[in-house]
Specification:
With about 200 residues, the chain is mostly helical. The chain has seven helices and no strands. The chain has two domains: about 140 residues, no CATH class; about 60 residues. Keywords: Membrane, Transmembrane, Transmembrane helix.
Length: about 200
């Protein structure tokens, strides 16, 4: 119940922010300008031509797409349907905000603006941390990594037990063969002694 409430509270911010960005992309387009000017050209140059032509470079379009992603990710996180993927999507939408509010986004000449940017940076960074935590939440169940490690250990233990069993069986068989060989040698010696005594007669 606590996890559901926490996820819903976190998601509400993104759904509200996403709806606002879809309705009025101009408000958040300014934050995405550094991404549109610096990151998008790099992505376009690295992507295949068919993909590069589909990547938007206008800040307003990027703002709308980010808003849509935030609404989808927020609903996914709140409802629990694909919650971890939803949290990853939300974390990805925060990266431009973190860059824009960070010192990498350029400095403002106005001290009040600079102070507000510092606060925005910390809020965005905190939300990024929260979404990354949510993306790794397994709801108390063991993660795939833990399960794989557990299976590996169980297999190693099982293999060790099987090897010990095989070694013990082999040792028993060797002991049995050794006893049989000793008995046969003893019998042969007796037979030889008997034959010798018969010859002496």
């Amino acid at each position: 119940m606590l996890r559901f409430l926490a996820r819903t509270m976190l998601a509400s911010y993104f759904v509200a922010d996403g709806v606002k960005a879809v309705r009025d992309p101009g408000a958040s387009a300014g934050e995405l300008r550094p991404v549109a000017e610096r990151v998008v050209p790099l992505v376009k140059s690295a992507a295949p031509p068919q993909v590069a032509s589909l990547i938007p470079s206008q800040p307003r379009t990027l703002a709308r797409l980010t808003g849509i992603a935030q609404v989808i990710g927020g609903i996914s996180l709140a409802t629990g349907i694909g919650r971890r993927m939803g949290a990853i999507i939300l974390a990805a939408t925060l990266v431009p905000q973190v860059i824009a509010a960070s010192p990498l986004g350029g400095r403002s000449t106005d001290d009040d603006d600079e102070e507000q940017r510092g606060r925005d940076f910390l809020v965005s960074l905190s939300l990024l941390g929260a979404t990354l935590l949510a993306s790794g939440d397994t709801q108390g169940r063991p993660s795939l990594g833990w399960r794989a490690d557990h299976v590996r250990r169980d297999l190693a233990k099982s293999a060790d037990k099987h090897l010990n069993r095989v070694e013990k069986t082999a040792e028993k068989k060797l002991d049995g063969l050794d006893k049989k060989a000793r008995r046969a040698a003893k019998k042969a010696r007796r037979s030889a002694k008997k034959a010798k005594s018969d010859l002496n007669l």
